[in-house]
Amino acid sequence: MIAFEAHDHSQAGAGVGHQTESHACRWDTELVPDAGGRTLRPEPDCPVELALAAVSGRWTTLVLRELMGGPLSFGALSARLPDISPKVLTERLRTLEARGLAVRERLAGFPVRTRYGLTAAGAALRPLLVELYRTGVELAEAGAAAEAGPGSGAVHGPVA
Question: How many CB atoms neighbour CB 35 within 10 A?
């Protein structure tokens, strides 16, 4: 709930409403355990927005999934994800590096070879990816049940 207050003494003048957080607002402490998530619009420093940005982009979750098992060369990543183009794989790896989630290591020898691995922050995304997968399966099952129509056993309500 938002309370709007008119402040006669503000620089904006009388009659202009200012948005303030009302004490009547109740946050679900599991969804919003601290002040970082108590925003009224998407903010770049919101923990949920940060997590979503970390895994955003087509192919990003699959590249992360492959690197969760340990460092891999560009060729090994390409072989594990044969449908990704080299250009897109390069872009995803550079993005993960820029986000501080992956590191590139140049290996000695000729020709020059590189190996990619996850940083501690990148490895910390594992539970998020696991939960995203689990939730996706539940959503797919719920969608299939809804398409089956009434009497299909679909339960409507919050997911436990």
Answer: 8
Cross-sheet strand order for the sheet of 102-107: 72-73, 113-118, 102-107
pLDDT of 2 > 60? The answer is no
96: closest CA among 70, 125, 69, 75? 125
Cα(44)–Cα(58) distance, rounded to whole angstroms?
A: 20
Contact 92, 57 (CB under 8 A): yes
Q: Please check whether residue 78 is in contact with residue 87, taking contact to mean a CB–CB distance below 8 angstroms.
A: no
pTM for the complete prediction?
A: 0.71
Check residue 130 and give left, alpha or beta (phi > 0: left; psi -120 to 50: alpha): alpha
